[in-house]
Amino acid sequence: MKTRYFMVAFIALGLLAISTAPGLAQETTIKNMDEYRAQLADWQKREVDAKSAITEETAKIADLKKQIAGLESEIASVKKEMYTIVGADEAQVSNFAKDLEGLRENTRRLQGLSEDEVSQRYAEVQAIEDKLKEYKKNPISCLPEMKAKIAEIESMLDRLPKLPGTYTVVRGDCLYKISGYPQIYDNPGRWPRIYRANRDQISNPTLIYPNQVLKIPRGYPNTHTVGSGEWLGKIAGYWEIYGDWRKWTRIYEANRDQIKDPDVIYPNQVLSIPRN
């Protein structure tokens, strides 16, 4: 009896669960649909707002384009008037600008060289300066854009060393005298450097001849080629090296790979001269 009672009760509970399940499922579905509809309405509102904003921004862009076109027209008109004032057309102005750009690039390349290298190309620096003077005579140079480019080139030229890298001997010259010239070292006592730089053509420093073209080294060298009769202390004492013979150890330490004994160096050895 008890077993039958429990089975009947179990079946009854099962039927009750089945009868109530569709109602629960229907309630849940309706609730999710309401949320979906609310979210859809929110998305639709956002879409309308976005389209409205796009329409406004498109109108603003169109207005800006119209303003830009007007400004470009005004600029073109002003340029035409300026070109008329300087007596040139657009093609002539364009060619002038290209010529200036070429000078600027050449000057910029010179800026990347060492003082000694620039001095060796002294003639090139002078050629740029001469061309710039010639361009400044052209009325086109008065245009604002051209004036700015010319000023930039002049500023770069001002930062370049204006000292020659060579000197042609004239009658009556001697190394001492040449060294004292303002465009050389402005110091006659520095003549030995000219001699050391030209040992290939000067065997006796007291004998130089007209029309000899002497190298005039500039700046402070990072290397030194050993000459006959030199030792580390003597080299360190040269004014362009360290100006102090006691600093020979710096040269020795920097060249241990080729100097086994600091008392023994050989002509034509190229030694590194540390600068830091």
List the helices and strands and how they pair.
Layout: H1 2-85, H2 90-111, H3 115-120, H4 122-136, H5 144-158, E1 166-168, H6 175-180, H7 191-197, E2 213-215, E3 223-225, H8 232-237, H9 248-254, E4 270-272
Antiparallel strand pairs: 1-2, 3-4
Helix pairs in contact: 2-4, 2-5, 4-5
The largest beta-sheet arranges its strands as: 1-2
Using only C-alpha atoms, the radius of gyration works out to 44 Å
How much of the sequence is in beta strands?
under 5%
Q: Helix content range of the residues, please? A: 55-70%
Give the ordered list of helices and strands.
HHHHHEHHEEHHE
Distance between the termini: 111 Å
| Arithmetic mean of pLDDT | 86
> pLDDT below 50 for ≥5 consecutive residues: which ranges?
5-28
Total E-strand runs: 4
Tally the helices.
9
Largest sheet: 2 strands, antiparallel
Shape: elongated
The secondary-structure class comes to mainly alpha
